[in-house]
Amino acid sequence: MAKGMRHPCIGWPAIHVAAGLIALADVSGLTAQACPEPDRVSRTEILQAMSGHGTYSLTSTTTSMRFGAEALLAIVRRRQRESPGSTQLLVAQSDWFAAHLETAGVTYTAMSAAARAGFEHHQDALVDYGPQVVEGVVEGPAPKMALDVTIFWPDSEGAASEFSYRDTLSVPRMDVYDSRVIRFNLLEYDSMLVFDRVTGISVRPRGFLSALFAVLGKPDLKQTRIAVSRDQWQVVRGQVKVFAGISKTGTATIEPGGRGHEGVPPGRADLAALAEHMKRPLKLRYGEPSCQTRLKMARRDGGGPGSVSPLP
Predict the structure, then answer these.
(1) What is the mean pLDDT of residues 58-78?
(2) Where are the domains of the chain?
């Protein structure tokens, strides 16, 4: 995967990724009783989850997927221990960004473009977890944990349906586009993280185009896989949907400091082995979106999730 192909939102995993079709349920009948509000995660909880990060850059766009994913998984693991009956939570952007800023120990301007863009556009995250997220395993091993993640901002009067920013750290450099609603499944395995069925994010390469992603237009992210070596290098395998039914896949490696490389550097047999292992087939059958997810996806005019394609 070229280095620009990462989840751009406030360090949300990112997400790293495919669109299909379902009929959205009519959300007008979802009352507060039938669809209770999710429990909001405190800033203290977020800080505690982020404190377990490894020895890698916390302010690079290239490492934001890993940082966000590991923090979300830590929050859910704690919730499962302390509130075993709970299966949903809400992370407010204001709390997430403040905790990220404190954890990184930097000024606002030193944060990545991804983090600042998410903060400025008030992107919150709704996370569903528990046995209802995955209905069954079609191919490959079962994940240790599976999250259904919706990143969104409210469809209020005058709200934008999309925003973009330029990722100057990627190779090739990318313009990254976030729709109002972003959806993905975050899967944790023993040896890697997988961002599956991502919708709502697309990229446009600028300037020099790599051989892997010499594509025109604004391809949609489809899936991203991340594995980490003992010395904190990341191997990232990403897939973009170029046209309907046509996708491209590539591999990148990222140094702990955030510098990215296309492919695997010479002399790194360990990274090459990780990259090969990440090619194994994985296919899951997912459950239906929760009622709160459908509410977040809905538009004020009742027209569905707007520019975001519903999940299959």
Answers:
(1) 93
(2) 27-297
